[in-house]
Fold this sequence. Notes:
Radius of gyration: 11 Å
Distance between the termini: 10 Å
Shape: globular
Number of strands: 4
Largest sheet: 2 strands, antiparallel
Helix content: 10-25%
Number of helices: 2
Strand content: 25-35%
Strand order of the largest sheet: 1-4
CATH architecture: 2-Layer Sandwich
Oligomer: single chain
CATH class: Alpha Beta
Amino acid sequence: MAVYIDKNLCKGCALCVIRCPRKVFEISSEVNRKGFTVAAAVRDGDCVKCGLCEKTCPDLAIRVAG
C-alpha cells in the first residue's frame, strides 16, 4: 500500500479527493470514533507518490510511503 490514512485523525474534509491528480481517494461510508466519515484510498495502485494529498491534509492524517 502506497497511501496510509490514519482514520482517527481524518475529518472527511475531502481535500485529498479534490487534490489527487490520479483520483486515488473517495469519502467512504466508514465513520471514525469522532463521528466523521473518513477518506479511503480506494485506488491506491494508481498512486504515483506525488505527495500532494499528504501536503494538503490539514489534519496530517495521510502518509505516502515510498
